[in-house]
Fold these 2 entries.
Entry 1:
Amino acid sequence: MAVGSVEPRLIIRGGRRLSGTIAVSGAKNSALKLMAASLLTSGVGVLHNVPDIQDVRTMQEVLEYLGAAVTFEEGTMQVDTTEVQSHVAPYDLVQRMRASIQIMGPLVARFGRARVAMPGGCNLGPRKIDIHLRGLAEMGGVVRSDHGFVEVTAEKLRATNIFLDYPSVGATENLLMAAVLAEGTTVLENAAREPEIVDLCKFLVSMGADIEGAGSSTLRVNGVEEMRPAEHTVLGDRIEAGTFLIAGAVTGGDVEVIGIGPHVLELFLFKLRSVGVQVQENSRSIRASGDPSSYTAADVATLPYPGFPTDLQAQMMVLLSIAKGVSVVTENVFESRFGFVDELIRLGAEIRVDGNHAVITGDRSLTGAIVRCPDLRAAAALATAGLAAEGCTELREVQHLDRGYERFEEKLQSLGAEVERTGVRPGTCGSL
Ligand code: EPU
């Protein structure tokens, strides 16, 4: 970033107790796939409760690149796929957002062809797409790669039984979208069970698909001749909800999130309780409060749903840094998702990383400092740590935060946090 340019930063003055209620936005990881699913038919699909975040804007660009006309106002998105002709997702878009590869299944299903730039590495380590491609090949797709692109062609995909090596969220979604128009019944075994996949199944069914087993690890998809445009409301973002609940808990506050049912965060809420956070829940909201001086250590291992979500691992680490005792956090989903640990240590945490384990010695008093955000969830965790820290924290590279959190600082401010966004203004945090 050139000297004098206006890279946005967040300035957080910690130590304020957060309290109040926030409404969660629509789930990023559902909205992106629903947008991709709209490619399965011609016409105008409508999505409500779409979060206005950078990743959604990037997916909008992907759809527009393919020839769709997209309007997006006040959470409602209309996707008109009538003029879609291209089947190519270029490098610049895929590299900006890996979820662009989710157009592959729908494009092969509808047009018999998809050419998508290979995503390459990302801040969470190498993220392969072998399970996506093997599944498409088993359905009769011919997979080729050249010039940094992977291309899948198939005159007509055919149904088959596919056993996923690992319950990959993205592969399950891509294969599900490919299977809805395939001839016969496709069975996906060891499928991912995330709530966002259930949301995708609901949308596909309202578009005319015939799917059984949504939310289980076996999905049966009876192929249909054609799909039609549909209208759907995106489910609430469980990761945003979890992030705000932790922000409340680490500040000794009392935060309620509405627009989300507790069943989608069951293990996460169990872990909050075992640390000593008080959690109250009903079918539409969750409330967390507590006294940080009474929190105690807990071990956490991330796993595919219904296990502990990897997307809340970094935020949980902040809570464990102030809880008494030694906690062990094991990251099982991504190869490198501890990139933020050195930054958290700058704020006063005591953490030792060994492979995919992090050992956290808690009961630390965090103090504000300048930190850089390596990825989206790390950015949310570092902001959370800043809220709990004494003094001022300057968060740099907050563009990562904007990929996935809608009006993040505005929501925090409504809970009483002292947080503002600035350009580069040396000395904003005093003598840091
Ligand atoms: N994997 C393979 N081969 C594949 C596919 C996946 O080896 O063909 C590996 C990946 O390398 C990774 C693991 O399997 O180590 C999990 O990947 P998965 O496919 O399940 O995740 P994803 O679809 O790439 C989505 C979310 C992530 C979330 C994960 C796990 C979207 C756009 N992304 O990624 O969200 O962490 O599922 O729940 O839905 C985030 O929101 O910050 C985020 C990273």
Note: Residues 293 and 323 are 7 Å apart (CA to CA).
Entry 2:
Amino acid sequence: MRTMGKWLWALWLVLLPAWAAAEDGHELWLRYRPLQGQAMVQLQAGARSIVVPAQPGSPTLRAAVAELQRGITAMAGREPVLATRIAQGALVLATPGSAPPGVELRWDELGREGWLLRSTRLQGRPVTLIAANSEAGLLYGSFAWLRAAQTGADLSRLEQRSVPKVGLRLLNHWDNLDRSVERGYAGASIWDWWKLPDLLDPRYVDYARANASLGINGTVLNNVNAKAESLTAPFLAKAAALADVFRPYGIRVYLSARFSAPVELGGLKTADPLDPAVRAWWRAKAAEIYERIPDFGGFLVKANSEGQPGPQDYGRHHADGANMLAEALAPHGGVVMWRAFVYAPDAKDRAAQAFAEFQPLDGKFAPNVIVQVKNGPIDFQPREPFHPLFGAMPKTPLALELQITKEYLGFSTHLVHLGPLFEEVLQADTGHGGTVARVVDGRLHGHRLTAIAGVANIGTDRNWSGSQFDQANWYAFGRLAWDPDLPAAAVARDWVAQTFTARPAARDAIARLMLASREAVVDYMTPLGLHHLMGTGHHHGPAPWVDNLERADWNPVYFHRAGRDGIGFDRSATGSNAVAQYAPSVARRFGDPRTTPPELLLWFHHLPWDHAMPSGRTLWAELVARYDRGVATVADMRRRWAALEPDIDAARHAEVAAYLAVQEGEARWWRDACIAYFQAVSGLPLPPGVRPPAQPLEAYKAMRFPFAPGRGG
Ligand code: GCV
């Protein structure tokens, strides 16, 4: 018995480290695991001490130093000392006011938030300089140095400089005050409104660290389908408590504002933006907010869209509404982010609506208004062309709104990496003299107010985002918001190195899998420019047959227009002519099926089923081939993930494998249901050798999902 006890004890000691090391993704990309080999040697040599100015410094500087200490201690196995004097192997944090003698650099090139990492010699000793003009810049630089260490950079030869190209880099939470999250697939809202402001969940600090590590500098706390209550005193106290937690991390708090709040909260008879009493109400509300949150960022507004109130209710236009709020915020330095996501029930073509309403208002917005435009003209589909407003409103700052949560891309169960989607829209040539990135970063039209927003995928799930790989979409958003020209592939590799493994072969294999996943989802859901084929309400799963919703432009049949004669939405000159909203060179390219990229063909054209595709197939055969390719890519992703088992900790490997199995099944479901439906409407036989759908069309139509997640608002 005694011997057995000894054995059990020995087994426990052997297994303990493995259990202790079990990973669940909670640490995100700030895991700071011990480095190996030469990397460890370099780290230990290059991060012996952290040199900071003699004064204790602000909370932001303290956050930077704490993060460096935490990261270095975990990665190097020993804690760096805090010092005020230069010694060999020091990390020297320097601003123009605090830089030790001998630091020579072009401070003006670092801007307000940029940073420089430089391996150099100071007072004859080898050191690493982390330099910035502000303490926020030092915080970003510290995170950049930690990223360099985690991703295997040579720490003894660092020379990196980065300045954000976009001023406001924001998360938009679609979180409701009851803690449900509209289109959220990662549990409840992390804002525990009930317990705030008294109880500050430690996760708020980790949230701030994670965002600061990417350069995200603002967060809109509540859903754009807003409740007026978020502007009442009790909720402002809660928002203020969060703002206090985030401030050291350079993150400002914003709120979604309900346009009719003066009626609902103020007892006024109207919310007409030209009514003096309404204007006075908003001015007083802004003053009240700034009293509690001196660095409050401003309002995000969804108006006259999907049933939300707005200025059009009073015969006014969007600029009237936005400018009224801008007037209230201007004395305090706040901004209004006014969304362009609008579409009227009677519009001839939903894709053309936002342009029709907003473009004529160019030049009519107050200087502290930024119009926030979704990446494409419909609604975060697996693939859309870039929104035609980009480049078409030169006198108005335009923010890009991306969706990080995957409302239309398989929720958090499908592995779909969004870096390539974000990159595709940012690098799209608007035809107005620059890419979408150049419009958004303000350079094309000389705007200083610039912003990128991402609809957050964060919730109370232990892994924050609902799945391990969905964290990468948050990460990619943040990195590309800082620098819209970063290659998505490089960002994906960084994330893998920080999150799973920095060993090059495994890192690259995982990144390749991620990068292939976006085209896969396009193929198995909506190939060749198809869009909006998903199920009603929940938006999960295929339902191209739906044609009975009250508004025409909510029905999938409105978008694909498939019949005996062919398939696709004619947005060329022979159809809705929405293509004319693009700059002439782009309109010409998209206006002709011969020059439209196959990826967008059916977005712009209605074509016969026997239309000849560049591949030599008919359109029908190409459509089926793309559905098959999508399923095959997911099957391949599964195989590749299985082969990575030795490189990944068991818990996370198993979780991802389980999700990939779900994804393969659902990719087949999409493929089978869509092919069954399009075959029925076209009356065509399946191309030779193609596997028939597993079930008859009626079986797919009969499926119901009453408890699908994420529809909170
Ligand atoms: C917040 C789509 C989504 C809605 C969302 C809306 C928007 O319609 O399905 O849930 O509402 O976009 O962006 O305002």
Note: Residues 174, 182-183, 224-225, 302, 306, 341, 379, 407, 713 surround 4-O-methyl-alpha-D-glucopyranuronic acid (CB under 6 Å).
